[in-house]
Amino acid sequence: MSTNLSLYDVLADGCHKYIPKEYHLPSYLMKWTPGVTPLSTTPEVGYAIVAYLAIIFGGREIMRGRPAFKLKIPFQIHNTILYVGSALLLALMAEEVVPMIYKHGFYYSICNTSAWTRRLEFYYIVNYYFKYIELIDTVFLVLKKKPLAFLHVFHHAATAALCYTQLEGETAVSWVVISLNLAVHVLMYYYYYATAGGKKIWWKKYLTTMQITQFIIDIFIVYFATYQHYGYRWGWPHVGDCTGSRFAAFCGCGLLTSYLFLFIAFYIKTYKTGKGATVQKAVTEAGTAGVKTN
Question: Which residues span the membrane (predicted)?
Answer without folding.
Answer: 39-59, 80-102, 173-194, 206-227, 247-268
